[in-house]
UniProtKB/TrEMBL annotation:
<dbReference type="InterPro" id="IPR000847">
    <property type="entry name" value="LysR_HTH_N"/>
</dbReference>
<dbReference type="GO" id="GO:0032993">
    <property type="term" value="C:protein-DNA complex"/>
</dbReference>
<comment type="similarity">
    <text>Belongs to the LysR transcriptional regulatory family.</text>
</comment>
<keyword id="KW-0805">Transcription regulation</keyword>
<dbReference type="InterPro" id="IPR036388">
    <property type="entry name" value="WH-like_DNA-bd_sf"/>
</dbReference>
<dbReference type="GO" id="GO:0003700">
    <property type="term" value="F:DNA-binding transcription factor activity"/>
</dbReference>
<dbReference type="Pfam" id="PF00126">
    <property type="entry name" value="HTH_1"/>
</dbReference>
<dbReference type="GO" id="GO:0003677">
    <property type="term" value="F:DNA binding"/>
</dbReference>
<feature type="domain" description="HTH lysR-type">
    <location>
        <begin position="1"/>
        <end position="59"/>
    </location>
</feature>
<keyword id="KW-0804">Transcription</keyword>
<dbReference type="InterPro" id="IPR036390">
    <property type="entry name" value="WH_DNA-bd_sf"/>
</dbReference>
<keyword id="KW-0238">DNA-binding</keyword>
<protein>
    <submittedName>
        <fullName>LysR family transcriptional regulator</fullName>
    </submittedName>
</protein>
């Protein structure tokens, strides 16, 4: 038995003194209203209406139950209203500050179409993790090693020259490899990639192939790193999508295959699962990562 539906039908019929009008107010057929009230009477073991009278006349038991039934129905309506409001509350999500405004806008639109309203907050990798720990956001896309990531973005080196080899080996940047006294090429790491599983791997290769310490540096921001590369022969560690946006030529690295990894951190598990399951594809497109759902379908 639909207990709440039965009490709602009882209240509407009792207030109007008519099964026809009460059913209309409940937005159900009269036959359904009659069945619900009858089921409620069987459940309570008492009659709510005097069936011998014309119309819907409340028995004494029915009159005694009507005030409490009104309170129950009103409380149910309040709960539904609060549930609607809660669904409209935006989910504040910390995302990488390398995402473009256009990509973030499309992410918000796609999320809304899937029933999730987002309040997007851009930040670097360290700040995003801290925002999640401090519960200043409901969820955050945090940087993790690719092996444990939901989204993974391959990284390579990009520069202004279209003459870069198909694969760039860091060892070819050693001093003395090029003919003549030329400026040493530097590799710039942007803040989004200034995390141990990316930065440390690049630094280890730098040391292993004999590059100078200054030949690999961490820039203050993506714009600063891009400016260094656009104004020289330096190289930027970045994704293929970033390279295309900056008008650079992107190549994989010969010695290693670094990648950004992203996972969802949230104080409430439901928020994390909601982001992972319902927004997996849209977030992949925002990050410039392969869509994990498409990869799964193809597998």
């Amino acid at each position: 038995m639909d207990v709440l539906g039965a009490w709602r039908a009882f209240v509407n019929v009792g207030e109007r003194g008519s099964f026809t009008e009460g059913a209309a107010a409940t937005r159900i057929p009269q036959s359904v209203a009659s069945r619900r009230v009858a089921a409620l009477e069987r459940h309570l073991g008492e009659r709510l209406f005097d069936r011998s009278s014309r119309g819907a006349v409340l028995t004494q038991f029915g009159r005694d139950m009507l005030p409490a039934a009104r309170r129950l129905v009103a409380l149910a309506d309040d709960l539904e209203y609060e549930a609607d409001r809660a669904r409209l509350n935006p989910l504040r999500l910390a995302v990488p500050d390398i995402c473009s405004v256009g990509d973030l806008a499309r992410l918000a639109v796609e999320a809304r179409q899937d029933g999730v309203r987002l309040d997007l907050h851009t930040a670097g990798p360290v700040a995003r993790a801290e925002l999640a720990r401090a519960r200043e956001v409901r969820a955050a896309l945090v940087a993790v090693p690719p092996a444990g990531a939901v989204w993974s973005v391959p990284l390579g080196l990009a520069g202004t020259s279209g003459l870069l080899p198909a694969t760039v080996y860091l060892e070819t940047l050693r001093a003395g490899r090029a003919a003549g006294p030329v400026r040493r090429t530097r590799v710039w790491i942007q803040p989004e990639d200034d995390v141990p599983h990316i930065r440390d791997r690049v630094m280890r290769i730098r040391d292993a192939v004999g590059l100078q310490p200054a030949q690999v540096g961490v820039a203050a921001g993506l714009a600063a790193a891009a400016a260094e590369v656009l104004g020289s022969g330096d190289l930027l560690l970045c994704s293929g999508r970033q390279a295309a946006e900056l008008g650079l030529h992107w190549r994989p690295i010969g010695e290693i295959s670094p990648a950004r990894g992203f996972e969802v951190a949230a104080a409430v598990g439901d928020d994390a699962e909601r982001v992972r399951s319902r927004l997996r594809g849209p977030i992949a497109r925002c990050l410039g990562a392969p869509d994990p759902t498409e990869a799964h379908d193809q597998g």
